[in-house]
Amino acid sequence: MRNFGADDLKVINVANKPLPFKNKFESVATDDYRTIIKELKLNKKHVSVIDDAQYLMANEFMRRATERGYDKFTEIAQNFWNLVNCVKDLPADHIVYFMAHIERDQNGNEKIKTIGKLLDEKITVEGMFTIVLKTNVTDGQYSFLTQNSGHDTVKSPIGMFPSYAIDNDLKYVDDKIRNYYEIGQFLTDEEMKEIDEKAKKDDIPIADEKPKRGRRSAKKEEPTETPVEEKKGEKPGREQE
Asked: What secondary structure letter does DSSP report for 187?
């Protein structure tokens, strides 16, 4: 987030913890769904970030840990589902990024952390988003992965990003989304060319240390099915991961 201007975005700080850089943004510390929805509707900056979104579920679960029965799991899932869906009612040029941690099962498959089985089995949170990116760290290099590995829920529209791995820069991601869907005051293709070249991470080793190249060479490995870091009705999901 650090490359956004001070007046570019609003942060909904769910865990109420300091950001990992000097905070220059408007920030609201809350894990109350009604407050979050109100803050999203009041935000005139066109970008909102909900960080860390999975603590909305985790905090509610811990507050209700002594309750018996399964009704609480249904309500926890429904509250989060309602929040994602409320984004559809925001202005078309308002992008909301949901940042969340992932969890890995015994087979090595990764997805967003949730509480209970309802969101996983009946909904699949990432299915409600058009764009899901995952942070990768290799040899001290930070990047976003843009395509599915076969063991995660990462996805992005065809041709949106120039390579399998891109710079870990949410401002760049926001520019690309607005350019791709022609949202608000977007940069043209010509204006994006030089920025794209700087953002590419063509030969960065990913997980198994095998280099991944650009979208062309990765197409053969790209599955037909594929997951905040964003969501917006018919516009791109609000995201990223």
From this structure: P
